Amino acid sequence: MKSKNTMLRGAAAGAAAVLALLATGCGATTTGGGTGDGETHSVDEGFSVGLLLPESKTARYDKFDKPYFEEALAERCEKCDLLYQNADQQTSKQQSQAEAMLTDGVDVLVLDAVDSEAAAGIVKNAQSQGVPVVAYDRLAEGGVDYYVSFDNKEVGRVQGRALLEALDKEKAGDDAEIVMINGAPTDPNAGDFKAGAHEVLDGQVEIGQEFDTPDWSPDRAQTQMEQAITSIGADDIAGVYSANDGMAAGIVAALKSAGVDDLPPITGQDAELAGIQRVIAGEQYMTVYKSIRPEAEIAADMAVAAATGEEYDGGEHSISKVEDGSGEEVSAVLLEPVSVTADQVEETVVSDGFYTVEEICTKDYADTDFCTEMSES
């Protein structure tokens, strides 16, 4: 994706923006702190914010994260510029994008790292130029200024508990054998999801096969599931832990190709539209809904605080301390994930305006119980 250097013009008036900043400890003008030119910036004059997102295989980033962040930044800083790039899951590409933004004089970086360890180079380079870095969704190493994400171990626990619940409903028994298909080993969140899931699943079920999936690739997940089917046997797989919805699509494809009509319970994450549709159709047992708007809004608050030299105090959110992979302690806000099964779709993604009923209930899903009930209500 080509760089977009777009002047953000929010609907909120300047006074409202200042009030929003004061509510989170972000004053309109400041002294102290570090930016690319060695001076602090003000909301009244505006400054430049770089947003670096990791990939486009997962639908959320371009559809939700970027526009939500753009909107939140405009509300908080009417005269701020946003520079945006997506790395398409390429570490070297993200490094080049960050270097270009720093060369262009960006004043604060919001970084969702492709590779958390490799991203330390981006962080150190920014720090050497006095540019603060906010880690978004994934905790980059190198000592970032702030971090906002979800409680990622709890995501794994939520998935694990849901899978055990489904197995119990199907009376799978204590000797039930499952397959675990985890996320990308370069993503620290994937390691947390995996650890949280193991906390719940270990000792409760037998894990027949387990894989880590480079790049969160649905195609690789499909191949891994095919290998598991060959090793275990399609009829002997009681359930599948899938770390996200994209990979769940590949898993479903592999099972269907193997002639499995009655699919085992499969987990997911991100509440992608296709994932929600599989949930209401009974092809995927659950997904994890992470409300992206508040995450993006907090990232905007953190970015404005960092650029203006203020300390982000969390506002209504509690701040915790987390360690990155290099042992650096970072101030963080960790939001709570929500499990979504077929009977919870309306009260979560629909109620929040994440998707409309019309978006979910396309022709292929119109006859599902969910869509039938929604059309009658």
Structural notes for this entry:
- The structure is a single chain.
- The chain has 377 residues and is an alpha/beta fold.
- The chain has two domains: 193 residues, Response regulator (Rossmann fold, 3-Layer(aba) Sandwich); 177 residues, Response regulator (Rossmann fold).
- Helices cover 40% and strands 17% of the residues.
- The strands form three sheets. It has an eight-stranded mixed β-sheet with strand order 1-3-2-4-5-6-12-11, sandwiched between helices.
- α4 links the parallel β4 and β5.
- α3 packs parallel to α4.
- The longest helix has 18 residues.
- The chain is globular and about 65 Å long.
- Keywords: Signal.
- InterPro entries: Bact_Solute-Bind_Prot2, Peripla_BP_I, SBP_2_dom.
- One of its GO terms (molecular function) is carbohydrate binding.
Write the layout of secondary structure elements.
Elements: E1 4-7, H1 14-23, E2 48-53, H2 60-76, E3 81-86, H3 91-103, E4 108-111, H4 120-128, E5 133-136, E6 146-150, H5 152-169, E7 177-182, H6 188-201, E8 206-212, H7 218-232, E9 239-242, H8 245-257, H9 273-281, E10 287-289, H10 292-308, E11 320-323, E12 329-335, E13 338-340, H11 346-350, H12 357-360, H13 369-376
Parallel strand pairs: 2-3, 2-4, 4-5, 5-6, 6-12, 7-8, 7-9
Antiparallel strand pairs: 1-3, 10-13, 11-12
Helix pairs in contact: 2-10, 3-4, 5-6, 7-8
Subcellular location: Cell envelope
Keywords: Signal
Pfam families: Peripla_BP_4
